[in-house]
Amino acid sequence: METYFSESVRLSLEAIADTIVPADAWPSATESGALTVLARYAAEFPAVWQTLIGPGLRALDQEAMSTYGQPVSELSAEACHELLATIAPHDTRSAWTVSPKQFVESLTAIIIEGYYGTPEAGGNKGGEAWKMIGFLPGGPNGDYPPVRETDLQQAEWEQLQDTYDAVVVGAGAGGSVAAAELAEAGLRVLVVERGSWLRYDQIGADHLRNHRFTRYGHNTGPDLNGHPRTMLDAQGNERVSAPHEGDYHNNAMTVGGGTRIYGAQAWRFHPEDFRMASRYGVPEGSSLIDWPIRYEDLEPYYDRAEWKVGVSGEGNAHSGRGERERSYPMPALSQTREGSRLAAGAAKLGWHAGPVPLLINSVARDGRGACIRCGQCVGFACPSDSKNGGHNTMLVRALATGNCDLLCDTLVERIETEGGTTATGVRIVQEAGGQTRRRQIRAGHVVLAAGAIESARLLLNSATASEPDGIGNRSGQVGRHLQGHVYAGAYGLFEEPVQDGQGPGVSVATFRHEHAADSGIIGGGLLANEFTRLPILHWYRALAPDAPRWGLAGKTAMRKSYLHTSQIQGPIQEIPVADARVRLSQTVKDRYGLPVVQLSGGVHPESLRAAAYLAEQAEQWLLASGAYRVWRTKPGGALSGGQHQAGTLRMGHDPASSVTDPLGRVHGYRNLWVCDGSVHVTNGGVNPVLTILALAFRTSENLVKQG
């Protein structure tokens, strides 16, 4: 790959790379494979290279000749550093046809990404950069064990039945529960998943392409080409977004959905989360209403989710968040060094703090082993198969009945209905062998579990003469009230190491600021320490604001801060707004010719006010825990509908303000159900997956009772 460059370009890049990451006791950038990384980037992104990096290199050489009388490749290390340091702040110079600042920042980022990224990508040879800062990719116990996971049998297109008792759209958290509950009740079920069944070794482990850090792509689905979405700004301009870009708001699209690569926090919603409007009133400009059910209605199903899917935790750790029938089926994972330090800080403040419940095996269970504490939960598949998701729990149960077919790589393009009261089946589409094929499947029930954005899209794309604006959309509610979670928090630097390499990382939480009468905010939320940071994420997000980011000083900053930095953050109980919404694009279609999702809107000012408050509290917690320096994170006001997306088909008694009834059935229909986060009226101040699971158990139970 290094021969990709001419000799002069190669020599210039060597000089620049070793200025960005010089040699000391640890390898320099070129010693670690920087040229391989740069050549790979140039081949993968030729337009960027030709329009920015290439012209920038030529201009930099002119600057070097003008200032030092030598090309970049012949400058001393000190002169090259001085050249880059003085050019970076400038926006225009006579020798430059591109922005010097953009050139230096972009080239620096590529080199740094290679140095701290995944060794298999060409840089960070032997993982030396990870060793330098103390990152343990295999956890404190070393390398990953051989992966053993249950394979899932997929149905073939030609083997499908013409009619099923139920078709479930989506094989994520809610869809997997629905599939198992219905199949175990004796119903014949078809699960249609637009993504692929990906085994562990098919889900990439690249630190630059995953659901934690999607700079160049992700590691599940959908494909980057053929599945766009658009974002509509306040001026009415529509911008196309690819699946790995932030404003796409992508959930992993694969069998297991987000549960395949999630962090697996397993919180119940607080009882007050179900009556937000009654407690706080309705803020101006919001669409806040109460849930039509209460915590007590959902408690038995929370219990069922914890025991059937598998949660580890301490049942009495966070009292006051609702009564529970029994504790968790597995004990909590052991406390980390950081968790212990923060627990002591919370006690100093008089705050109660306790362990975090996780959908992760702390002990062997259901034929799968315990967590190996590797620290790469979020964004990646679990190397020990101890993270409990839809793919290795409920779908396994569903397929074991013999009553369930799983069809992957297939899109449900339309729900067929009759008279605006009955769902009669679905139309599916699939690409195979370079050909597109379609088929209609009849069904006694249709269950939507494609996520809040895609479930809303499917209803809108299924318009009929009796419902010209989309199924269930007579009151214009389908796609509205989209919400996720605004996050806020703070970082803290400690004199001594606070990280011990024990994954998943997150281990201690406080609810001191959830529905606190003295806070002056609406709702509030959880504060907890964060999951183990990828080294490249630390460089991008966790270095102090004024820390050097390149040169020997930048290398030292990484080495001295990685194990010494703690991050506390939490999701805010968002205040929904009607104009945060999913619509259909009038101009952009997907590879099958279907209108794609158009997203628009932002978050309510109260959500940002609450976020600012929680960031202050996170700062206090870190200081009380011994941090000598802290700095806060600040969220923007852009649309929030990411991996915790919810609200687009919210439940309620009144069809004028909701899409489904309290059982999760679309108003006016007897057999069209929703089993994902789109039914959430509000999304809690915690991760929502356990509530998605609990509601799916409840909805499935009622579907079976109806018959």
Structure description:
The chain is of the alpha/beta class and 707 residues long. It has 2 domains: 2-133, no CATH class; 157-484 and 573-706, FAD/NAD(P)-binding domain. The chain has 16 helices and 16 strands. The strands form 3 sheets. Strands 1, 2, 5, 6, 7, 8 and 16 form a 7-stranded mixed beta sheet that branches. The mean pLDDT is 95.
Q: Under the CATH scheme, which class of the largest domain?
A: Alpha Beta
Structural class: alpha/beta
Main beta sheet: strand number and arrangement? 7 strands, mixed
- Helix count? 16
- Whole-number count of domains: 2
- Supply the CATH superfamily name of the largest domain: FAD/NAD(P)-binding domain
Low-pLDDT regions: none
**Which range does the strand content fall in?**
5-15%
How far apart are the first and last residues' alpha carbons, in Å?
Answer: 62 Å
* Shape-level CATH architecture of the largest domain: 3-Layer(bba) Sandwich
Classify the fold: give the CATH topology of the largest domain: FAD/NAD(P)-binding domain
Which oligomerization state do the chains in this entry correspond to? single chain
Helix content: 25-40%
Shape: globular
Overall average residue pLDDT: 95
